[in-house]
Amino acid sequence: MSQPILQTTGLTKEFRGFVAVAGVDLAVQEGTVHALIGPNGAGKTTFFNLLTKFLQPTSGAILYRGRDITGLQPAEVARLGLVRSFQISAVFAHLTALENVRLALQRARGNSYDFWRSDRLLGTYDERARALLADVGLADFVATPAVQLPYGRKRALEIATTLALDPQMMLLDEPTAGMAHEDVDRIVQLIRRVRAGRTVLMVEHNLSVVEGLCDTITVLTRGRVLAEGDYESVSRNPDVVAAYLGSADA
Q1: What is the pLDDT of residues 172-221, one digit of tens each?
Q2: pTM
Q3: Which residues, including other chains, have CB under 8 Å from residue 207's CB and lie 6 or more apart?
Q4: Which CATH class is domain 1-81+170-250?
């Protein structure tokens, strides 16, 4: 098997004596969709925060494409192509869908965002922004302020802004959380489309989503890896059934 695109070794995070992530070894293969699941409090979001450098680990290492990124800052990690979306939608509420994606595209300039530039200059991003919105099913919502979008479509907009950064690897934090069934289906189809040529690592509670999308599943409990494998093997693991699948949080 080739070298993983993302790998952690002994990754640990302690908060004043509480161990939230405890010696996690993880290997994500390039071109796969890899799920991180577990009951509430298992350490999933803390682990994501470590990967994207919003938290520094107490010990352990993070390698991305063979490079040690443990000591890098969040912006440096994003520039390498490792980009995260958040559980709570993080778009600009009072900008239109087009304006949100256009701002993300400006990141490719490699300098500050041009809020004060002319419409003519900013308009050079419009074609690509419209294409990204079409890719996520928002072609009819180009001029709609993000605050007016239904929740599921707002999450689709967030994924469009993530795609605007041209990530090699996407980290999705509960992309279907709080959605109605039809919105869940829409996001699942979206992830299927955008995974082409990319690697996806996602935290997800909806097990039907995990089953239908993911090549590999890692189960965390109390900050440790409990099991790993495909959905069939993980779902039949008695330790997983006891710790997660049979719990009220599942």
Answers
A1: 988 888 788 888 888 888 899 888 889 999 999 888 999 999 999 999 99
A2: 0.85
A3: 37, 235, 245, 250
A4: alpha beta
